[in-house]
Amino acid sequence: MPDRAAVPSPDPAVLARALEELPHGVLVHRGPEHLVVGANRAARTFLGDRPGILGRPLAEVFPEIAGQNLMGRFDHVFATGEPFTAREWRIEVTGDGDDRYVDLDAVALHDPPGEATGVVVQFRDVTATVRHRRSLEADTAELRERYEAAQDVVLTLQRSLLPDGLPVLPGMRIAAHYLVAGAEQAAGGDWFEAVALDGTAAIMVGDVVGHGSAAAAVMAQLRAVLVEFLLDGDGLDTVLARLDAFAGRVPGARGATVCIVLVRPDGEVRYVCAGHPPPLVVSIDGAARYLSAPGGGPLGVAGPAATVGTAALAAGDLVLCYSDGLVERPSQDLTVGLTELAEVASAAMRRGPSSTMSADATDRVAELTVERMTRHGYHDDVTVLALRLTGHAVPDLVTEIPAEPGRLSALRRGLETWLADLGVGDADVASIEIAVLEAATNSVEHAYPDGGGTVRVEGRLDGQGRVCMTITDHGTWRPAPADPGHRGRGLMMMRGCMDTVEIDDSVEGTVLLLDRRVRREPVVSPATVVETSATPRPSTMSVTRTVAPEPRIALGGPIDLGTADDLRRELWSASRGGALPLVVELGAVTHLGSAGIQVLYDFVEDMTADGRALRFVVPPGSPARHAIVLSDLDRIVPVSES
């Protein structure tokens, strides 16, 4: 019987060709410096075909890896031999122009004696899969409803106890991200707050021992009294002493920690940490440093009192306050998490995925820090509160337009741009826009009956976080009639949109003074990614008609004095002169002024008189919904969300 043929030995050339053709990326690096010794075609393509990568450290070949929480993982694989696996890891590749997601496995490379000599990384680009799934999730009402139902109670409680907005101050930008504890999804004791103290910003983060409603109630008390103490005007040492005494009297407050940072516009900083990790400062070039902890134990317990520290911020510097849930790691010293936080925040300041680069650096650092520091889960609430000195003050708004309807659109665009530069939130932008455009419209319509004349609009942001607007004309003030009918609603809308409205009319003209305290919304959610849109608002009214048994007309963009006549024609055309019922969709309307409200009132009245069905579709929170409620239009016509 012939001998069985010997099994052939592996052919290295065949294996090399197979590895080169694999659709998944493979990187091989050796030694503690992770010198790249191999990369197949898929890996080279993923990295943008960078020249001369062999024989160089991975951190040099792929410098943007710093701060993405990967190099430390590879170090651990090399040192311990334990594999590392990540799924759908968002990664930044400079020059790629888009976010990328990978499934990744890293294992130690051993020589025959068994000694670890390097690391092999195999990864698969799953960007298309992730985007497709997220698109389906976003478009599927059933999935959205399940998610909202599961989180509604927790998030409602958290939002009711946490601030509903962050102040907008000259030369500063503030952002906050808060994640509910991932393990138990129970309301926790972490809290944050930011208040304006006549130009000085006070930001604070605290933590109460425990979870659940009891801890949340204590958290709310501490936050409320601390804000009151600060607003009383006491020094920071006095404020902390009063807070410490209060905590000693409140069951459940003993042992709570807090970090308070006061930042002046010139960069002077005073801060105190009572049992809390120190603030992190990140400069505009990414250099990160922790402020030296001046010492002091938690609130309400025996021990040394916390002392006040001082520091200075330069233009562009960012100070980051956070809860210990962000940096604590099971079975690891706290310094490990603090080191990781500094690296991640530094990288986020210098760069980020394309979806975050259009955002202000403050928002980007807050978002990416939370996302990257919680990739492997979090067992406690996570809070990040960031304040950055922007390095420049947005100039006051000063513009003067001819008193003509066609000039209002330019005023609106200039106002929107100015408010966006200040960092004002969308809800406040919509309210201020309504009020200012109503004031300017009143001047255009009534101040100059013989034509000519101008309207001057001035705006400034004061040290208390209020936008103060002045609208001036040199015409004649027309008192409101006793029965304005459907007219004369502009002043009512102005008062509904602003905190104060003052009118000074004289023979020289009319001056309207409007002001509103403006805020930016914090992110309070289990989700770690906030999409940022840089899409500008439309400058003209858009119209889309749908022919159906119940005809629809969808309106978008601004509706003001300049487009009111167009709106009237479109409504009557869509309803065939009132012969058909009509659904009017207003969700895409960015501005609805009193001139548009008047047209809608007239149309509702005529359609109702003819017995024709009419319904408005206006989503909650939209600019049009705000204007419709202010004008009481929702009382005479059915208004639905869809």
TrEMBL record:
Keywords (A to Z) from UniProt: Hydrolase
One Pfam short name: SpoIIE
PROSITE patterns hit by this protein: PAC (PS50113), PPM_2 (PS51746), STAS (PS50801)
Residue ranges occupied by any PPM-type phosphatase domain in the UniProt entry: 173-389
Domain of life: Bacteria
Xref: SMART domains: PP2C_SIG
Domain PAC per the UniProt entry, residue ranges: 85-138
Boundaries of every STAS domain copy: 553-642
Protein's recorded name: SpoIIE family protein phosphatase
Naturally occurring in which organism (per UniProt): Pseudonocardia abyssalis
